[in-house]
Design goal:
about 450 residues, Rossmann fold, Hypothetical protein af1432, 3 domains, two-stranded antiparallel ribbon, about 10% strand, globular, binds fe (ii) ion
Length: about 450
């Protein structure tokens, strides 16, 4: 039997922390988590019962105390146990809320942030009768798991790190306080290791050291390139978990497989090699991130329907499949100015890459014509000198083509700025300006919302 616990907490780093603590505890816990009011409302509408609810009093899209939302949750789950989290600066606002809401409870529900696991467990033990029913069968193991993506955020681990080889067989792979480097994770990723283990006692003691607010420790990497690779990997972990809705990640993951299948069935071997062997490469990863951002944005429009899922994901994964020459990858990332040092032939070959893949796809029966349009026009929309192969303006693009082009550029801005949220925000100021022309401006607001949620996740806050 599982202990059902909801965590409604806008700060991603806190949310991760509470979730990790609960899932590594000796109790069998099912965690329902949300970092914004919309996602939290969906959860409370779908679930009838929680054993415990953590609710941050700043649970709102605008980071202000949201009395209405808190009242809704309290009314709907009035017979269940709550902890209301707050930080010291918010105490005044919190006191005002107290009068309205907390009078109806027969215990003191306030708990100050940052989250203190031991204090929480004390409350849990006091408020849930027969807590022992929820103790996990494997709770006597002296190890607890920690995800690779969580270790990636650290310069070093405060505890020795192990991998699991058998039922109770653990092997130490890393000494506490030795510095991590990116190759450590690469080595184990290749072997299919996704989770590492630390001793439970050490984990509990150093709990707060395991969850720093930043996404990736810059100091762990020797160069910007290594850091970008680490940040990109961490980004996929965080985006998948917090920045982009789960159904979008699922859809994109499934359809990415279909894109690979299409190349395989049609014997497009060099393109297939680019995608199949290129996982963790710029071409594969920027294509996958494009599918997430474009899909999440398109979903915000009335004209969106599920048929767009396949169109967007196939186009994203295939849009650069003709860039089999690795010299062109840095031009795709850096933009047309990088072409200046290339020969005339190279310039033509690069500018034709959308045509090349579109022509291949035209010969494949079951490819929707919209996919061919998106692939063909992914570098269009800014007129003669800045767009290719046709030099179109945004007025000549459909709604979906506009969103695809805009999402593609956003992805490139993430890469050019090494996934550093402040640098990305700075670069975006100029990009949003450029988009305030022609058809692009009709889609800015929705795209900005999606980018905001990713940046929020990158910063580890809301
Ligand atoms: Fe691209
Ligand atoms: Fe491209």
């Amino acid at each position: 039997m599982k202990l059902k616990i909801a965590i409604f907490e806008p700060k991603i780093s806190e949310l991760k922390k509470v979730q990790s603590f609960l899932t590594s505890s000796t109790y069998d816990v099912e965690v329902f988590r949300a970092s914004n009011v919309d996602a939290a409302t969906k959860i409370i509408n779908e679930q009838n019962h929680f054993h415990f609810i953590f609710l941050n009093v700043r649970m709102s899209p605008y980071q202000k105390i949201n009395t209405h939302f808190i009242q809704t949750v309290l009314a709907r789950f009035s017979d269940q146990k709550f902890i209301l989290l707050y930080s010291k600066e918010e105490h005044k606002d919190v006191s005002e809320l107290t009068n309205v809401l907390v009078d109806q409870l027969d215990y003191d529900p306030w708990m100050e942030l940052p989250f203190k696991p031991l204090q929480f467990f004390k409350v849990l033990e006091q408020s849930i009768s027969e807590l022992s029913k929820f103790v996990r069968s494997d709770s006597r193991s002296q190890y607890t798991s920690i995800k690779a993506v969580e270790l990636l955020a650290l310069k070093t681990s405060p505890c020795d790190v192990f991998i699991k080889l058998g039922d109770e067989k653990y092997v130490k792979v890393f000494n506490s306080f030795d510095p991590f480097d990116a190759t450590f994770f690469e080595k184990y990723k290749v072997k299919g290791v996704r989770s590492f283990f630390v001793e439970r006692a050490c984990f509990n003691k150093h709990f707060n050291d395991f969850f720093p607010p930043q996404l990736v420790a810059r100091d762990s990497f020797n160069s910007d390139e290594e850091y970008a690779l680490g940040a990109q990997k961490a980004l996929f972990g965080v985006v998948a978990e917090f920045g982009i809705s789960e159904d979008v990640v699922e859809t994109a993951t499934e359809l990415a497989e279909e894109a690979v299948d299409i190349l395989e069935k049609n014997n497009l071997t060099s393109m297939l090699a680019l995608l199949k062997n290129g996982k963790d490469s710029f071409i594969y990863d920027h294509s996958f991130l494009l599918s997430l951002i474009c899909l999440e944005t398109a979903k915000k429009f009335k004209w969106y329907s599920s048929k767009h899922n396949r169109i967007i994901c196939l186009s994203s994964l295939l849009h650069d499949a003709s860039l089999t020459d690795p010299r062109f990858h840095s031009i795709e990332l850096g933009g047309l100015s990088k072409l200046e040092n290339c020969s005339k032939e190279e310039q033509v070959a690069f500018k034709d890459h959308p045509l090349e893949i579109a022509n291949e796809l035209k010969r494949i029966m079951d490819i929707p014509s919209d996919v061919i349009g998106l692939v063909l026009k992914h570098h269009e929309g800014f007129g003669t000198d800045k767009s290719f192969p046709y030099g179109h303006y945004s007025q000549q693009l459909s709604a979906l083509e506009c969103i695809f082009v805009m999402s593609h550029e956003i992805v490139l801005i993430f890469y050019r700025n090494l996934f550093h949220p402040d640098k990305i925000e700075h670069a975006l100021l100029q990009y949003w300006e450029e988009l305030h022309k022609g058809n692009f401006r009709k889609y800015i607001k929705e795209l900005q919302e999606v980018v905001e949620s990713i940046l929020t996740a990158l910063k580890g806050e809301a």
